[in-house]
């Protein structure tokens, strides 16, 4: 192995990774959520840590246990994730792998809703976009901001639009249509979308995809500081 390749190449850098779903309460015993095991975000945090970065891992209630090494901050809702991300800054690298619920219940009940009280009307309000917020920072923005785009249709077009709309540097796009079996599985097939173009990566384990992404991140930052 090339010594340069084997050496930790993110030493001295701080990487922030969000992961897992968020849970948005309806009442104290019920919630709405996104499907997410947290496996891909966990693998990315582990891979960045192996390359020598100091990693802060902000995770919603995922089924995959958090990786050893990174500092783990557990949150439940999108609002909590947003606050935890801001509190963890500054960071050199930010990877937003979380499946954040786009809406929360505006009129969440503080005590359990009872069936006898009739059919509840849930009023939804949009959650803050954590990725767009951090990518749009004018001061103290991480050097590299990476978002994900989980799509079921028009993956590339949607990913390109997301890159532009959110102001991030890269989008890792994946096709999560049920037929791919990716959602909840051990493998991922992604397209890396940057301002330079789009690259299809072959389907591989989520760990292998994470390793490749971490190495790409190290390469990009080395080019920046060269
Ligand atoms: N994201 C975020 N905060 C949100 C919603 C999404 O940080 N409130 C991040 C995700 O972690 C991901 C990226 O934004 O990195 C894209 O998420 P996605 O759900 O694909 O995009 P949306 O902008 O929410 O659009 P839509 O769900 O309508 O496709
Ligand atoms: Ca969304």
Automatic annotation (TrEMBL):
Kindly state which reaction or reactions the protein catalyses.
(R)-4'-phosphopantothenate + L-cysteine + CTP = N-[(R)-4-phosphopantothenoyl]-L-cysteine + CMP + diphosphate + H(+); N-[(R)-4-phosphopantothenoyl]-L-cysteine + H(+) = (R)-4'-phosphopantetheine + CO2
Q: What is this protein called?
A: Coenzyme A biosynthesis bifunctional protein CoaBC
Q: Which residues of the full protein are shown?
A: 174 to 399 of 400
Q: Which keywords belong to this entry?
A: Decarboxylase, Flavoprotein, FMN, Ligase, Lyase, Magnesium, Metal-binding, Multifunctional enzyme
* Function of the molecule: Catalyzes two steps in the biosynthesis of coenzyme A. In the first step cysteine is conjugated to 4'-phosphopantothenate to form 4-phosphopantothenoylcysteine, in the latter compound is decarboxylated to form 4'-phosphopantotheine. Catalyzes two sequential steps in the biosynthesis of coenzyme A. In the first step cysteine is conjugated to 4'-phosphopantothenate to form 4-phosphopantothenoylcysteine. In the second step the latter compound is decarboxylated to form 4'-phosphopantotheine.
- Biological process per Gene Ontology, one example term: pantothenate catabolic process
DNA/pantothenate metabolism flavoprotein C-terminal domain location: 10-219
Please state which protein family the record places this protein in. In the C-terminal section; belongs to the PPC synthetase family. In the N-terminal section; belongs to the HFCD (homo-oligomeric flavin containing Cys decarboxylase) superfamily.
User: Which EC number applies?
Assistant: 4.1.1.36, 6.3.2.5
Comment on bound cofactor = Binds 1 FMN per subunit.
Q: Quote the record's binding site residues for CTP.
A: 102, 112, 128-131, 148, 162, 166
Residues annotated as region Phosphopantothenate--cysteine ligase?
15-226
Which organism is this entry from? Oceaniovalibus guishaninsula JLT2003
Tell me the superkingdom of the source: Bacteria
Cellular component, GO, one term? phosphopantothenoylcysteine decarboxylase complex
One of the entry's Gene Ontology molecular-function terms is: FMN binding
Quote the gene name from the UniProt entry: coaBC
Q: In which pathway does it act?
A: Cofactor biosynthesis; coenzyme A biosynthesis; CoA from (R)-pantothenate: step 3/5; Cofactor biosynthesis; coenzyme A biosynthesis; CoA from (R)-pantothenate: step 2/5
Q: Which cofactor does it need?
A: FMN; Mg(2+)
Asked if the record carries the keyword Flavoprotein, the reply is: yes
Is ATP-binding there in the keyword field? no
Q: Lineage, please?
A: Bacteria, Pseudomonadati, Pseudomonadota, Alphaproteobacteria, Rhodobacterales
